[in-house]
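Query structure, 180 tokens:
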């Protein structure tokens, strides 16, 4: 899985590719390979091993891909963007066509479903959460609509490109008392 990461407002995002290697997770940072081991130690706290260096990590996900990090006491703000999100933004379109299926951008496990079939959602609302590499990733509605169908349930293992849910876009959707 390929990500682009900006730390502290850097103008040039760093390319990070995560892959399963024979001895565990391997990360390539701007082409340089580093072995990675990440173990949850409770809540948003992790033990992180990068190569031969160990770190205490606290990672809290914010809005718009922002992640607040504390790495062995040093604080950073990072913005993480999946390759598919970056491509969609560059093309000036969303990742899901109105009325089309929303697919997974990474392998993982469905951790929670926040919006069941039939629920109205606003653009940007979280529909479900996928756990991948011990991090929770929110899958959000790309437009106002109704969750027309769910293709997954909590605990399902999913792969990159698997269908997760479909949003319909009827002419008028009642959302929290407003007409859209």
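Result returned for the query:
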């Amino acid at each position: 899985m390929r990500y682009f990461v900006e730390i502290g407002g850097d103008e040039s995002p760093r390319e990070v590719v995560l892959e399963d290697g024979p001895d565990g997770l391997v990360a390539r940072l701007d082409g340089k390979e580093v072995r990675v081991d990440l173990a949850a130690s409770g809540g948003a706290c992790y033990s992180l091993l990068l190569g031969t260096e160990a770190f205490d990590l606290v990672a809290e996900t914010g809005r718009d891909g922002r992640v607040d990090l504390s790495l062995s006491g040093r604080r950073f703000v990072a913005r993480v963007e999946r390759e598919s999100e970056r491509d969609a933004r560059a093309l000036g379109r969303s990742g899901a066509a109105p009325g089309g299926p929303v697919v997974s951008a990474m392998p993982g496990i469905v951790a929670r479903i926040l919006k069941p079939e039939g629920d109205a959602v606003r653009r940007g609302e979280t529909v479900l959460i996928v756990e991948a590499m011990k991090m929770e990733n929110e899958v959000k509605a790309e437009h106002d609509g109704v969750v027309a169908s769910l293709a997954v349930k909590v605990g399902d293992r999913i792969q990159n490109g698997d269908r997760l849910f479909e949003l319909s876009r009827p002419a008028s959707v009642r959302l929290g008392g407003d007409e859209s």
